[in-house]
Each structure stands twice: as C-alpha cells, then as structure tokens.
Amino acid sequence: VFVDLCNGVLQTLPPALQQFLVQTALLDSFSVPLCDYMLHSVHGAEHIRQLQELGLFIEADPAQSAFHYHALFRHHLLQLFRQMPLEQQDRMIARACAWLVDNGQREAACRLAREHSQRGFFVEVLQRSFHAWFKAGRGDPVFYWARELGEKALLALPETRFAWC
C-alpha cells in the first residue's frame, strides 16, 4: 500500500522534482549546496522549497541547516535510485562524497561510500580519510572505523597497517 501511495504521489510531481527526489535519496541529510554540487544544478533551493510548500516527504533540521526525508519514503526512493544505471549512481555518489570531504565531513563521506558505493570506491575514500586524519593527528575517526570494520579489515590497508603499528 505504501509503495502504491508513494508512486501515486510521485507521478503527480513535475519530472524535474521526481528526478531530484530519486537522485538525492542516498543522502542521510542534505543541503542546497550539497544537492546543487552533486547534481550539477542550480535548482536545489527551488526543489526543496517546492517540497516544503507541498508538505511532502521532507523534514527540516534547523540545527544543521539541512533536510532529510522521512525514513519510509527514503527507503522507497533508494529502491528507485538503485534502478538507475550503475555509472550514473557511481557518479552521484562520488560527487556527494567529494562535496562532503571538501566541507569537512569526511566521516559522513565514508559512511555514504560504505553504504551506497562499490567496495573499491569505499576503500579509496577511507584510505584518503585515514591519511588526512593521521596527518591532522585525529585518532577518533580511525578508532570508530576500527570498531565498525574490524581490525583485520583495517590491517589489510597499507596506510592503516603502518599507522596502527
């Protein structure tokens, strides 16, 4: 019933807004600059404003100046996102991760890459993040990922093995 309801509501929206919803579904929380960068667009503010006016699917997080989708609706949108060509998915994930890294949110980029990308890309993002964290003398994120992935997985990465020793 919920899927039919979501599809029915989506079909009433303009195609550009439907595309925006599907393409941003992979983001836990999002802002206008992140969406615009990720989608090569300048319409993020307009789309978010439309969703707020409609009172559909989107919830504001004023503390972070960000938004997120209702969990059930996001799950449905993620199913639609995964139906897109893999090349397009990878491109959007990479752009979102690049924006997050450039804006000091490396941990969010690692979580996004782990959850939605192919393993090789996740490892690349994680290795670059470890390098930056080690260079900055930050151990907290490294210990988080050690607990999350397990010590054996981290020791398989050359940067991590050296730092762990």
3D structure, described in words:
The mean pLDDT is 88. The N and C termini lie far apart (54 Å). The protein has a two-stranded antiparallel ribbon with strand order 1-2. The protein is built from 11 helices and 2 strands, in the order ααααββααααααα. 24% of the residues are buried. The protein has 165 residues and is mainly alpha-helical. It has helices at 2-12, 15-23, 32-39, 44-54, 71-81, 86-102, 106-116, 119-136, 140-149, 151-155, 158-164, and strands at 58-61, 66-69.
Précis, in short:
It is elongated and about 55 Å long. It has 11 helices and 2 strands. Helix content is 72%, strand content 5%.
List keywords for this structure.
mainly alpha; two-stranded antiparallel ribbon; 165 residues; 11 helices; 5% strand; single chain
Find the count of extended strands (DSSP E, 2+ residues).
2
CA-based shape: elongated
Query: What is the tally of helical segments?
Result: 11
Helix/strand/pairing class, anyone? Answer: mainly alpha
Major sheet summary line: 2 strands, antiparallel
| Through-space gap between termini | 54 Å
In the sheet with the most strands, the strands line up as 1-2
Tell me the β content. under 5%
**What is the H/E string?**
HHHHEEHHHHHHH
Low-confidence stretches: none
Write the topology of this structure.
Layout: H1 2-12, H2 15-23, H3 32-39, H4 44-54, E1 58-61, E2 66-69, H5 71-81, H6 86-102, H7 106-116, H8 119-136, H9 140-149, H10 151-155, H11 158-164
Antiparallel strand pairs: 1-2
